[in-house]
User: Which sequence fits this backbone?
C-alpha cells in the first residue's frame, strides 16, 4: 500500500496548499495594518476600480468585479450617502448609470492605495533583490494560466487576458517599429484572430488590408506610427496611430495581441505608446472606433481615460454589431 505522505501532489493539491499559505500571509498582513479599515475588501476593490478607471458605468463595475447587481446597488448607495461617489445617467446611454468618485472618495481611494503599497513593500522588503523578479515572474505565470482557464477575453483587450504557458522576463518583451513583412503580418493576424474569436468574415480582412496599405503608401513618420509587440523574437501584437480627418486629432487603430501573449500587459503598453506619441507630437485628441462585442476592451480604454461618445448599430463582417466611438482629450483646453 502506498504511503499517503509520498503520494504525488496534483495541481489541485498544490493550488489548495498555495491558497492556504497565501490567505494566511495576506490575512495576517491586512490585519496587522488594518489595510481596508473602515471598508470591506469588496468596498475597497470598488473604490480602486473607480480611481483607476474614472469613467465606469455601474454595469462595467458589476462585470469587472463579478458582483451581484443588487449587492452593488446597495454598496453604491452606501457610498453615495457617505459622499464618496456621485451617480448620474451616462451621456452616451441614459439607461446606464455613470459612477464617479467625489473629492472625498478619491481621498479614500488614495489612502487605501497608499496602505496597500506600504503593506506589499513590507512583504517583499526581506526578499533579496535578485529574487524579486523571479517572484514577480512566478506571480505573472500563476495569474496568466488561471485567468486563461477562466476567461479567454477579447483580442482588443489583450492586457487582461492570459498566456497559458510560463511567463517570460519583461526583458524579453519589446515594442518596435515594423520591419519587412510586419505590415502583412498585421493583416493576416487580425483576419485570423477575429475570424476565430468572433466569426468575422473576409470583409474585415479587406478593411484591415486597406488601412495598412494606406499607411504603407502614404504616411508622415513624424505624425503617424505603427508599433509591433515582439516576444521571444516573434511578433505578437500591434497598434497604429494615424492622422484623423478632424484637425488636431489622431486615431488609434488595429490594436491586437495574440492569445498566447496575453496577460503580460502588452495591450496596456501598446495603448500607452500610442497615447504618449500622440500627445508628444501635439495632437489635441486621440479617438478610436470599436464594436460592442469587445466588452473587455471598454475597461482597457477607460483605464487610459477614453470616454465613449457615440454608438450606432450596423451590420459588418457578417455580424450585427454596435459600433462605438471613443475619445481621449490629450491636452486641457484653456478657458477663455
Assistant:
Amino acid at each position: 500500500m502506498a504511503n499517503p505522505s509520498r503520494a504525488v501532489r496534483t495541481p489541485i493539491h498544490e493550488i489548495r496548499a498555495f491558497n492556504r499559505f497565501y490567505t494566511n500571509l495576506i490575512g495576517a498582513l491586512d490585519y496587522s495594518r488594518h489595510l481596508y479599515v473602515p471598508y470591506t475588501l469588496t468596498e475597497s476593490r470598488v473604490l480602486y476600480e473607480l480611481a483607476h478607471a474614472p469613467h465606469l458605468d455601474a454595469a462595467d463595475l458589476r462585470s469587472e468585479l463579478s458582483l451581484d447587481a443588487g449587492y452593488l446597488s446597495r454598496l453604491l448607495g452606501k457610498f453615495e450617502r457617505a459622499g464618496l461617489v456621485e451617480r448620474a445617467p451616462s451621456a452616451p446611454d441614459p439607461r446606464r448609470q455613470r459612477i464617479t468618485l467625489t473629492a472625498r472618495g478619491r481621498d479614500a481611494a488614495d489612502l487605501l492605495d497608499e496602505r496597500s503599497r506600504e503593506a506589499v513593500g513590507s512583504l517583499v522588503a526581506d526578499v533579496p533583490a535578485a529574487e524579486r523578479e523571479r517572484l514577480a515572474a512566478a506571480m505573472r505565470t500563476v495569474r496568466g494560466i488561471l485567468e486563461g482557464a477562466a476567461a479567454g477575453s477579447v483580442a482588443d483587450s489583450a492586457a487582461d487576458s492570459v498566456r497559458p504557458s510560463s511567463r517570460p522576463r519583461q526583458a524579453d518583451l519589446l515594442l518596435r517599429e515594423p520591419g519587412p513583412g510586419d505590415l502583412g503580418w498585421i493583416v493576416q493576424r487580425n483576419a485570423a484572430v477575429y475570424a476565430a474569436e468572433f466569426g468575422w468574415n473576409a470583409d474585415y480582412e479587406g478593411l484591415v488590408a486597406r488601412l495598412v496599405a494606406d499607411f504603407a503608401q502614404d504616411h508622415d513618420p513624424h505624425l503617424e506610427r505603427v508599433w509591433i509587440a515582439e516576444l521571444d523574437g516573434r511578433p505578437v501584437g500591434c497598434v497604429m496611430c494615424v492622422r484623423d480627418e478632424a484637425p488636431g486629432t489622431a486615431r488609434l487603430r488595429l490594436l491586437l495581441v495574440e492569445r498566447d501573449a496575453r496577460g503580460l500587459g502588452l495591450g496596456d503598453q501598446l495603448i500607452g505608446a500610442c497615447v504618449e506619441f500622440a500627445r508628444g507630437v501635439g495632437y489635441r485628441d486621440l479617438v478610436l472606433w470599436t464594436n460592442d462585442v469587445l466588452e473587455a476592451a471598454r475597461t482597457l480604454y477607460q483605464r487610459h481615460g477614453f470616454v465613449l461618445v457615440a454608438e450606432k448599430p450596423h451590420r459588418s463582417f457578417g455580424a450585427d454589431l454596435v459600433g462605438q466611438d471613443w475619445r481621449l482629450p490629450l491636452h486641457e483646453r484653456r478657458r477663455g
The chain is about 45% helix and 20% strand. The beta strands are 85-89, 97-101, 173-176, 225-231, 234-243, 249-257, 285-291, 307-316, 319-329.
